[in-house]
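In response to reviewer comment 3 from the previous cycle, which asked for concrete evidence that the modeling workflow produces usable outputs, we include below a single protein chain processed end to end. The sequence was submitted unchanged, and the resulting structure tokens are shown without manual editing.
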Amino acid sequence: MDYGKSGAPQKGKNKPRHSEHNAKGSRKNPFGQQQPKAELLARMKAAAEKNKKD
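The workflow returned the following structure tokens.
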């Protein structure tokens, strides 16, 4: 009997079903580029000030 033709489940292709919108190496998130730390600190300080006022 040829068990390969009996409708056995197919092996996975090890590939995601879709691509992420911010995947590494894409246009939105290129390789080797990080946000500057000063920009991050400015955003954090602005958020803290906003929360203090509320």
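Helices lie at 37-53. We consider this sufficient to address the reviewer's concern, and the full set will be provided in the supplementary archive.
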